[in-house]
Design a protein that fits this description.
Strand order of the largest sheet: 8-7-9-10-11
CATH architecture of the largest domain: 3-Layer(aba) Sandwich
CATH class of the largest domain: Alpha Beta
Shape: elongated
Structural class: alpha/beta
Helix content: 40-55%
Number of strands: 11
Radius of gyration: 20 Å
Oligomer: single chain
Length: 209
C-alpha cells in the first residue's frame, strides 16, 4: 500500500482487501495507464474530497511504473514541487578510471542543480542490482562495450524491476549486431562514446519526456 499526500489530502494506492473503505472515501479503479492518471489527477485537484483510494491488483508496480512517473512536476501550495530526475551511471571499475567517464560523471553532478538531476555511480558487481533497487533511478546510463554480458543482464534487470529508461554508451565502431543485442535487452537509446556532450544532454532530456 502507498500513501501520497497532496496538501492536506491523501491518495491511497492499494489492492482490494488491503484497506477498509468507508463511505466518505472515493474509490477509483479504472486507472490502467499513465495517460489515465494524467486525465484523472486534475479532477482530483478540482474536487474537495479529502481521501481517495486507487485500487490496483499490483500496487507496487502501479505506483512505480505508472503513478509516480507522471508526477515529475506537481502543483502544490505556495509553488511547484518538482521531483528530481535520478540518473545512475553503471560502468566497470576499469572504465571508471578513464578521463571521459570521469568527466561525464562530474559534468552531470555539476549540471544537477540547473537541470534538477541527482546522479550516482556503481560498478558492475553484486552491488549494482541492489543500487538499482534502492536508488530507484529514472535513467540508467551504462558503458556497454561490445554488448557486454554484465551490462545486458543489468539492463534486463532494470527493465523488469523498475521500468526505468536506459541509455547505453558504446564504442564508435560497435557492430550493428551488437547494437541490436543491446536494444533487444531493453536499452531505450544507444549512443557512441564520441558523442558531443551537448548532444548527450539533449538525448538524456528526450528520454525523460
Amino acid at each position: 500500500m502507498y500513501e501520497v499526500f497532496f496538501n492536506d489530502r491523501k491518495i491511497i494506492i492499494a489492492a482490494k482487501g488491503e484497506i477498509t473503505i468507508n463511505k466518505s472515501i472515493q474509490i477509483v479503479d479504472n486507472l490502467l495507464t499513465r495517460n489515465d492518471v494524467k486525465k484523472w489527477f486534475p479532477q482530483f485537484v478540482s474536487n474537495d474530497i479529502q481521501e481517495v483510494v486507487i485500487l490496483n491488483p499490483a500496487p507496487e508496480i502501479f505506483f512505480k511504473n505508472i503513478f509516480q512517473p507522471v508526477f515529475r512536476q506537481i502543483k502544490a501550495a505556495g509553488g511547484v514541487v518538482v521531483r528530481r530526475k535520478k540518473i545512475l551511471f553503471i560502468f566497470s571499475s576499469q572504465i571508471l578510471k578513464y578521463i571521459y567517464v570521469s568527466f561525464l560523471v562530474h559534468f552531470f553532478q555539476k549540471l544537477r542543480t540547473e537541470e534538477n538531476f541527482i546522479s550516482d555511480t556503481v560498478c558492475y558487481d553484486r552491488k549494482a542490482k541492489y543500487k538499482i533497487l534502492t536508488f530507484a533511478p529514472d535513467l540508467i546510463v551504462t558503458y556497454t562495450i561490445s554488448a557486454h554480458d554484465n551490462a545486458l543482464q543489468l539492463i534486463r534487470f532494470a527493465k523488469k524491476t523498475g521500468g526505468c529508461r536506459v541509455l547505453s554508451i558504446v564504442e564508435k565502431n560497435i557492430s550493428r549486431e551488437n547494437i541490436a543485442h543491446i536494444k533487444a535487452a531493453g536499452s531505450d537509446a544507444v549512443v557512441a562514446r564520441c558523442i558531443n556532450i551537448n548532444e548527450l544532454v539533449e538525448k538524456i532530456n528526450s528520454l525523460f519526456k
